[in-house]
């Protein structure tokens, strides 16, 4: 697709088919991620790709758990019991159950800044990782795959750590779902530019 068409037509996908992601497509998507801007040229990111059925099922259970916490505890406005039950039922039907999960971490095993500036190194590594995630998402969409950015994964970082076993000195940023969408995603409208831009 032409670049602006890829950007403008991208939408989050929450329902996936069972079709596997082709290895060559996955490699293309991950290579696109690593072409993102990166602070210090350090590439302080790590991608853990989950294909195994048993681990995917565990992650899916965790995603339900963190969504429940979000709706029951984190939100200022809670949802009622009927909507919560509907959410749980949708998870049982396969909501967010993807052929692949990609956990994205920042990787500070090779440091670039002095300890006094560790906070800055972490923040810049996060920015680099987020740029990589956007590349990943757009590349996936361009190849006909759907994704969803599961930022709530941060609520279960320790639980996910036990399952994914990332190296020391890494920190979870998010989990991305990846697979063929069950239905064509439709991009939602965004706020008009005049509401979100200040030119001085």
Rg (CA only): 18 Å
* Total DSSP helices: 7
Shape: globular
The sequence of SSEs as H and E is: HHEHHEHEHEH
Percent range of helical residues: 40-55%
Residue share in β-strands? 5-15%
Structure commentary:
With 200 residues, this protein is α+β, with helices and mostly antiparallel strands. The chain has a single domain, classed as NADH Oxidase, CATH 3.40.109.10. Helices cover 45% and strands 14% of the residues. The chain is built from seven helices and four strands. It has helices at residues 3-9, 23-33, 53-74, 81-93, 118-142, 157-164, 193-196, and strands spanning 45-50, 100-107, 146-150, 170-179. The protein has a four-stranded antiparallel sheet with strand order 1-2-4-3, with helices on both faces. Helix 2 (23-33) packs across helix 5 and helix 3 packs antiparallel against helix 6. The mean pLDDT is 96.
Provide a brief overview of the structure:
The chain has 200 residues and is an alpha+beta fold.
Features:
NADH Oxidase, 14% strand, 200 residues, globular, 45% helix, 7 helices
List the helices and strands and how they pair.
Layout (H helix, E strand, L loop, with lengths): L2 H7 L13 H11 L11 E6 L2 H22 L6 H13 L6 E8 L10 H25 L3 E5 L6 H8 L5 E10 L13 H4 L4
Antiparallel strand pairs: 1-2, 2-4, 3-4
Helix pairs in contact: 2-5, 3-6
């Amino acid at each position: 697709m032409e670049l602006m068409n890829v950007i403008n037509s991208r939408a989050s996908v929450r329902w996936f088919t069972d079709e596997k992601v082709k290895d060559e497509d996955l490699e293309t998507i991950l290579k696109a991620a690593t072409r993102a801007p990166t602070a210090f040229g350090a590439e302080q990111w790590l991608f853990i790709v989950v294909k195994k059925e048993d681990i995917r099922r565990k992650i899916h259970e965790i995603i339900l758990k963190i969504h429940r916490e979000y709706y029951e505890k984190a939100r200022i406005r809670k949802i009622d019991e009927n909507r919560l039950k509907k959410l749980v039922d949708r998870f049982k039907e396969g909501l967010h159950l993807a052929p692949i999960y990609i956990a994205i971490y920042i990787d500070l095993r090779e440091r670039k800044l002095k300890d006094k500036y560790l906070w800055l190194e972490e923040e810049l590594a996060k920015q680099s990782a987020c740029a990589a995630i956007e590349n990943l998402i757009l590349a996936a969409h361009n190849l006909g795959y759907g994704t969803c950015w599961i930022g709530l994964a941060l609520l279960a970082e320790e639980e996910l750590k036990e399952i994914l076993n990332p190296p020391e000195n890494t920190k979870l940023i998010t989990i991305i779902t990846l697979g063929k969408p069950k239905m064509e995603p439709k991009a939602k409208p965004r706020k008009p530019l005049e509401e979100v831009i200040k030119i001085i």
